[in-house]
Each structure stands twice: as C-alpha cells, then as structure tokens.
Amino acid sequence: MRLITVEEFRKKYFVSGSEPDTRTVRSWIDKGELIGRVVGKLYYVDLDRWETNTGDPLVDRVLRNGTT
Questions:
Q1: What are the sequence ranges of the domains in the chain?
Q2: What is the rounded average pLDDT of the residues 35-47?
Q3: What number of other Cβ atoms are within 10 A of residue 27's Cβ?
Q4: What is the dihedral of CA 47, 1, 6, 35, to 10 degrees?
Q5: pTM given for the model
Q6: How many whole angstroms separate alpha carbon 21 and alpha carbon 26?
Q7: b vs e for 9-25, b when ≥16 Cβ sit within 10 Å of the residue's Cβ?
Q8: 43: exposed, middle or buried (Cβ count in 10 Å: 0-12, 13-18, 19+)
Q9: Nearest to 25 by CA among 33, 60, 55
C-alpha cells in the first residue's frame, strides 16, 4: 500500500484549476468512495487502489474483496 497526502494526490492526478477541494477528497475518503487512511487529522490516499480502480463498482469490489 502506497499512501500519499490529499494535497499530493490533487496535484498529481488533476489539472491545475480543476482539482477537487481538499474537503471534497476528505469526504470521499470518509464515505469510502476513495480508499485511504486517516491518521489523526491527516488524510492519505491509497495509490495502489486508486491506480487499479476500473470505474465499475462491481468489478472493483470483486478485485478488492475477491467476492461479490
């Protein structure tokens, strides 16, 4: 598992000016829409999960858990 900060994630994967707000990314992590970790008050994005995400919820769930 490779973790990066929310700020690094926004800079790496979004074009300047179109990146989501930091609060939005944190909300995605809190809701489980984006896989990450919260350590104290710091939020991190799991790069391995992000980079292997297919965009299909069923396929992603099977790849993540091995079951439907």
A1: 3-65
A2: 95
A3: 14
A4: 80
A5: 0.77
A6: 9
A7: bbeeeeeeeebbeeeeb
A8: buried
A9: 33
